[in-house]
Amino acid sequence: MKKLLISAAALAVTAGMGMAQDVVRMGTEGAYPPWNFINDDGEVDGFERELGDELCARAELECEWVTNEWDSIIPNLVSGNYDTIIAGMSITDERDEVIDFTQAYTPPDPSSYLALSMDVDVENAVIAAQTNTIQAAFVAEQGWTLVEFPTPEETIAAVRNGEADAVLADKSYLAAAAAENDDLMLLEREEQIGGGVGMGLRESDDELLETFDAAIQSMKDDGSLNALIEKWEVASTF
């Protein structure tokens, strides 16, 4: 994986960023390409792996990666199984009541529908979404028929086996699935749901949050965050 170079200007910005502490455990799902996934070597890979490694380098932190299923990713952060969530998690008021967020490291990614036919009327269809996502909450709020699944792969499988008519998820995830499967197609309709994507931390970890906030800002300032977003095609740029 190609490392982003830190310019002299960025080093000057981040010189005071380091903080003395134990290894920071970076929690992710490992099942949501291109944001995060497990590669052929069994390692966490994707946009957030490259981003997280760069943030840790700029903050002079020693970090390690931990995977956790999505439906328990917030409870297991709160209970101390890892120190951050960096897993394509949109910043919402509901989540912010339980954990704290850094500033967004991507703008909001539109949510799209994936189906076997372009003729699906989503308002009168069965929509699959991953449990505890902003998309599942959106479908429920509309009063549409919702079926929820623990993993994103299962939502797509539900469309293929007839349990659902369409999947609602982040466009970047579904676009990759559509590109790899000739029988699946993105519907024209999109939804704008939630805020940008940020790192989640325990509410007690103010110093660590400030450290990652500063590292994210330094990547915005020198353009390297936009370059990374473009490389992995996860969202629009800042």
UniProtKB/TrEMBL annotation:
Keywords: Signal. Residues 1-20 form the signal peptide. InterPro entries: Solute-binding_3/MltF_N. Residues 23-236 form the Solute-binding protein family 3/N-terminal domain. It comes from the Bacteria. PANTHER family: AMINO-ACID-BINDING PROTEIN YXEM-RELATED, MEMBRANE-BOUND LYTIC MUREIN TRANSGLYCOSYLASE F. This is Transporter substrate-binding domain-containing protein. It comes from Psychromarinibacter sediminicola. The lineage of its organism: Bacteria, Pseudomonadati, Pseudomonadota, Alphaproteobacteria, Rhodobacterales.
